[in-house]
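Subject: design request, 701 residues
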């Protein structure tokens, strides 16, 4: 029989899960969006069954080696490992991965419901429940929950909340006092902090937050600030307090040094367009602009109307003069913060710690690759929700007679937030909706136009792609990626002059741009400027030595230059770097086959199919090799397999017809040729072959 005391907790947890369900469950049927493509879909650390744990712990979040100069130094191996396990269970299934995010968010909310009463014992539980409800339905969390990469934030949050719970429980008055227990608790906190750091970089704030909580609980700091009393009191043994502080500060230092050691003590390199504020040369401009960003972050928590997946290029102008009116909200936020610190109670100070400390890594103290990111507000919003509820409680107590009116207003606000979260999570279901919604909030953001153009090009809508690439370049003339991609579009239209023009402009904007140099090489090769093309490829390899695609294209160039030996070496180098390149395997095998090395083709194609299984081109070359060796049965089986993979490709039926013709199965050959002509009625060689075959069988004169 169920314990009656546990029933309210079960009901509360169920209610929280229902709220989360109302907000997000409809959006689980979405696709991989935005950063999901790079961090998951195209990340071999996630999608390669042979991925080793050593490789995962040696690469960054995006699958690049931490020694790569282009890496962003995002080191989250636990999250990548979690993605890899999900891939093994579900494959590349966005629904299941988004469902994991949903359940993790529910778990965070349930944990929060248990931790807040311990953190704020003087506040009644029903008020703290309202803070949990606000957190559960807040629209600012859509990026974390609807974007699969948000799992890094969710996993980190779980370790963060458990760490805070461990510290809060140890500071309760009924908890046994002992140096040994303190040491064990701090040891556990260190492990939780390390796990949180390995999930996301902000995990370092677990120990920092716990240290600040320890200071607030074991000293009279809150009263000291309120009363301006210079006397310092300790509520526990000063030696015990000093021991805890010294150990925690030391561990924080060790973890920071460990994190810096992992990235070889070198900061990440970000482009100016990613964060113009952080790249501003003037210290005054950086301080004023960053202060405005603090105000804007607080506004997004207070009134989450302006939500965008990206706030980069052109979204927020720099504050370059002290007469800029946007200095006013920055001044107001500092004034509000000072007011809360100087006049707030311990509860308010604790809530501020929960809000400010987890935000510090995103505050501009270290160089960032973003202006504003809604995902970094996930943990800080805990403290914000508690502050809002404390203010709401004060209002209800002060105007007691109107409390039902205030309750109705609060309930209406929660309903509005649920509706806003539903609408925002709907936008996160597809990239097209997400990018389009970003234009409404940041219409001058060149990066959003770039993303829409790239998506349109991938979907074959080149007209829209041209339009938005040009718009992105209009807003930011030195946008190297947009210039290069626009050049590639012109190349696809065989307009090589314009293609060369825009790709060269992208190189002028960023000389060390290996992808642009490689694409310039492709354009020059198409114009038969072989020596210039070779020089462009070599320049690309100078800036990115392990560039598999460039080696592949260089091999194609050598074929056009009639240098099959160098082509062979280029493709082999390409496959050494990335053995999953099906096109490189196909070209390599075709070259070997043309040299009459049919047994080598069969041997190598078996290796190729291990890296690129069921690739039609590799299978086709393998079938041709068997056919040339008169091993007709093996060749027939593979041709039929290839035809199943690409049933509307005439060449496969043509070669099958040739095989049957040589095999003496003339009727089979006739049917294969006839099928090829149904697919491609204009093939003269097939018509000729069929005509000769019909004559030889006496079916026509």
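Subject: RE: design request

Done. Sequence follows.
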């Amino acid at each position: 029989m169920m314990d009656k005391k546990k029933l309210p907790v079960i009901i509360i947890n169920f209610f929280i899960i229902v709220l989360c369900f109302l907000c997000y469950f409809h959006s689980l049927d979405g696709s991989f969006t935005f950063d999901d493509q790079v961090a998951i879909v195209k990340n071999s650390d996630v999608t390669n069954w042979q991925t080793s744990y050593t490789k995962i712990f040696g690469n960054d979040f995006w699958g690049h080696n931490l020694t790569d100069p282009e890496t962003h130094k995002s080191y989250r191996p636990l999250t990548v490992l979690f993605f890899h396990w999900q891939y093994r269970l579900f494959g590349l299934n966005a629904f299941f991965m988004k469902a994991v995010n949903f359940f993790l968010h529910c778990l965070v909310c349930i944990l929060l419901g248990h931790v807040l009463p311990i953190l704020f014992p003087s506040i009644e539980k029903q008020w703290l429940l309202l803070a949990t409800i606000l957190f559960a339905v807040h629209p600012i969390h859509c990026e974390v929950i609807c974007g699969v990469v948000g799992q890094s934030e969710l996993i980190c949050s779980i370790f963060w909340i458990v760490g805070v719970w461990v510290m809060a429980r140890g500071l309760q008055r009924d908890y046994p006092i002992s140096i040994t227990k303190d040491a064990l608790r701090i040891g556990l906190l260190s492990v939780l902090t390390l796990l949180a750091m390995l999930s996301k970089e902000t995990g370092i704030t677990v120990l920092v937050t716990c240290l600040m909580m320890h200071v607030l609980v074991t000293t009279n700091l809150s009263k000291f600030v309120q009363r301006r009393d210079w006397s310092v009191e300790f509520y526990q043994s000063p030696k015990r307090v000093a021991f805890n502080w010294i150990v925690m500060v030391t561990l924080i230092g060790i973890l920071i040094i460990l994190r810096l050691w992992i990235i070889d003590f070198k900061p990440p390199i970000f482009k100016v367009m990613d964060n113009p504020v952080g790249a501003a040369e003037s210290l005054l401009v950086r301080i004023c602009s960053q202060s405005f960003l603090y105000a804007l972050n607080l506004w997004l928590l207070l009134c989450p109307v302006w939500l965008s997946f990206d706030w980069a290029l052109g979204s927020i102008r720099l504050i370059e003069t002290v007469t800029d009116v946007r200095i006013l909200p920055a001044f107001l936020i500092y004034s509000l913060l000072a007011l809360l610190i100087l006049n707030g109670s311990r509860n308010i100070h604790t809530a501020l710690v929960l809000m400010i400390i987890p935000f510090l890594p995103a505050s501009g103290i270290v160089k960032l690759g973003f202006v504003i990111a809604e995902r970094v507000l996930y943990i800080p919003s805990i403290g914000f929700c508690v502050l809002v509820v404390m203010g709401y409680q004060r209002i209800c107590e002060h105007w007691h007679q109107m409390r039902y009116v205030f309750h109705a207003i609060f309930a209406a606000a929660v309903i509005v937030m649920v509706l806003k979260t539903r609408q925002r999570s709907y936008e996160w279901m597809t990239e097209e909706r997400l990018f389009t919604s970003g234009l409404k909030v940041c219409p001058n953001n060149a990066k959003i136009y770039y993303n829409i153009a790239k998506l349109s090009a991938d979907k074959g809508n080149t007209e829209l792609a041209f339009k938005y690439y040009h718009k992105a370049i209009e807003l930011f003339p030195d946008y190297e990626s947009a210039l290069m991609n626009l050049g590639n579009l012109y190349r696809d239209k065989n307009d090589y002059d314009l293609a060369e023009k825009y790709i060269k402009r992208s190189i002028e904007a960023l000389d060390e741009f290996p992808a642009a140099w490689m694409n310039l090489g492709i354009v020059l090769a198409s114009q038969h400027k072989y020596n210039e093309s070779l020089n462009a490829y070599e320049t690309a390899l100078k800036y990115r030595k392990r560039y598999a695609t460039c080696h592949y294209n260089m091999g194609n160039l050598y074929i056009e230059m009639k240098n099959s030996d160098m082509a062979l070496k280029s493709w082999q180098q390409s496959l050494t770097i990335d053995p999953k390149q099906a096109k490189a395997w196909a070209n390599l095998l075709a070259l070997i086959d043309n040299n009459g090395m049919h047994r080598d083709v069969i041997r190598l194609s078996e290796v190729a199919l291990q890296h690129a299984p069921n690739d039609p081109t590799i299978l086709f070359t393998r079938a041709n090799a068997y056919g040339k060796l008169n091993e007709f049965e093996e060749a027939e089986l593979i041709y039929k397999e290839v035809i199943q993979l690409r049933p509307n490709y005439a060449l496969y039926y043509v070669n099958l017809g040739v095989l049957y013709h040589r095999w003496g199965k003339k009727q089979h050959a006739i049917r294969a040729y006839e099928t090829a002509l149904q697919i491609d009625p204009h093939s003269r060689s097939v018509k000729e072959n069929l005509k000769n075959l019909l004559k030889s069988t006496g079916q026509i004169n």
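Residues 1-5 have pLDDT under 50 and may be disordered.
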